[in-house]
Amino acid sequence: MIKAPKGTYDVLPNISHAWRKIEDAEREVARLAGYREIRTPVFEHTELFLRGVGDTTDIVQKEMYTFKDKGDRSITLKPEGTAGVVRAMLESGLNQGVMPLKVYYLSSPIFRYEAPQSGRMREHHQFGVEAFGARQPTLDAEVISIPLDVLTKLGLSDFALNINSIGCPKCRPHYHERLREYLTQRKDKLCATCNDRLLRNPLRILDCKSDECQAELKDAPVMLDFLCDECAAHFAGLKDALDAIGVSYAVNPRIVRGLDYYTKTVFEIIISADEGKLTVCGGGRYDELVSELGGQPTPAIGFGMGIERLLMLLQRQNKSPEAEPICDVFVATLTPESRLEAVRYVSALRALGVKADMDHVGRSLKAQFKFADKVGAGYVLILGGDEAAQGEAVLRNLTAHTEDRVALEGLAQTVAETILAKR
After folding, report:
1. What is the distance between the alpha carbons of residues 408 and 390, in angstroms, rounded to a whole number?
2. pLDDT tens across 148-170, in order?
3. CA 340 to CA 17: how far, in whole Å?
4. Which of 66, 249, 324, 330 has its CA 20 to 30 Å from the CA of residue 341?
5. What is the CA 286 to chain-centroid distance, rounded?
6. What CA–CA distance (Å, rounded) separates 274 from 344?
7. In CATH, what number does 13-171+227-316 get?
8. In the chain, domain spans
9. Is 151 helix (H, G, I), strand (E, B) or coil?
10. What's the DSSP call for residue 42?
11. Is residue 64 within a helix (H) or strand (E), and if so which, with residue range?
């Protein structure tokens, strides 16, 4: 009863400051690129993911948390962020406004029933960007640059961008045919899931995690050799745009991503870790998804970036931010009569932007000083005693080991100016 379910964990106060650092970096990078925040529900109608994500994907077949609600409706905790954003856009009519529409979501909870991995739990959280209404590959380059800028802003290193094109509905069928022919000759060596995919969607086999299946794919044909003129030109334009902004990349023809809605551009950002290479961000273009979900044909591109994986990598690269002190100044009292004065000064200091606190459990003065040290207070303001009778209080600097007498008149303002000047 008091143990978190497998694949979940609590974000405790001693780590929440690192989440804020990541979120602040993500918000700033998104803001500078003109993206606005969107928040969608944690659960959606199951059909949204069946139609959007694809019923041949591992996500739909194995990983979704799906249940019937009290109205006998099939509901699914969202296994990815894009489909819900598209649904929200269509329902609200955002697609009728100025295009391109550029939005982001932050620390969005994602649910997948799978074995917990390095930096990804059954409930994990993503930063994502979605951009609608533009076909030019310059938008692809912009979207790809956002997670790269976040990683740089956080001080992470050893990451690399891999890109690919998986074509469009015009050129992909021919590739499917050739891939199916190649894999049919090796079907006896494929896993049961991939034998099912062979008929329904052979492209999904490229995403299989089985070592045996991957071995059979070594000499398989690649989509880049089957691109139509439009897709080939788009991929060339993407590379030109990345070159123009100085982004290094490698072309990896095996990237397909785990979702059926992708077209043309797909990409992953890989980072070195103890386990080998980990994907810290993945995404791509999905020009058919909006129409598949009932809207007008609308080109679009986006990505998802795991927060927990970023936290893990920050720790491993010794880039985790230090937590700020809980308290700037602790207001200590010498007498019971000065407690109400402490309440008043704590409230006044907080109103001036100073993190202030006081004793609420009846500690001795010595114990109050010990508590002030534990919460990281740089100063202790001492009320009561002989100084109070002379209209003064004592402000002790715990770092410099000095103290000054401060007049009670204008006390909060004087203390606030002293502390804020040190920041």
Report:
1. 9
2. 999 999 999 999 999 999 999 99
3. 32
4. 324
5. 20
6. 53
7. 3.30.930.10
8. 13-171+227-316, 329-420
9. helix
10. S
11. none
In the three-class reduction of DSSP (H, G, I as helix; E, B as strand; rest coil), residue 264 is classed as strand
Contact 290, 331 (CB under 8 A): no
Largest CA-CA distance found in the chain, in angstroms, rounded: 96
Q: pLDDT tens for residues 297-346?
A: 999 999 999 999 999 999 999 999 989 899 999 999 999 989 999 999 99
Pick from 184, 172, 164, 137: nearest CA to 256: 164
Q: Which of 142, 206, 214 is nearest to 180 (CA)?
A: 206
Burial grade of 52 (CB within 10 A; 0-12, 13-18, 19 or more)? buried
CATH for the 329-420 domain, from 3.30.70.1060, 3.40.50.720, 1.10.1040.10, 3.40.50.800: 3.40.50.800
Element (H or E) spanning 240, and its range?
Answer: helix 229-244
H helix count then E strand count, the chain: 15, 16
Backbone φ and ψ of 250, nearest 5°: -130, 140
Instruction: List, for residues 104-145, the tens digit of each pLDDT value.
Output: 999 999 999 988 877 789 999 999 999 999 999 999 999 999
- Side-by-side strand order, sheet with 65-68: 43-45, 74-77, 65-68
**How would you classify residue 168: left for phi > 0, otherwise alpha for psi between -120 and 50, otherwise beta?**
beta
Phi-psi region of 271 (alpha: psi -120 to 50; beta: other; left: phi over 0): beta
Q: Is the peptide bond between 336 and the residue preceding it cis, with omega within 30 degrees of 0?
A: no
Contact of 262 with 161, CB cutoff 8 Å: no
**Distance from C-alpha of 265 to C-alpha of 326, rounded to nearest angstrom:** 46
Residue 368 and residue 359 in contact, taking contact as beta carbons nearer than 8 Å: yes
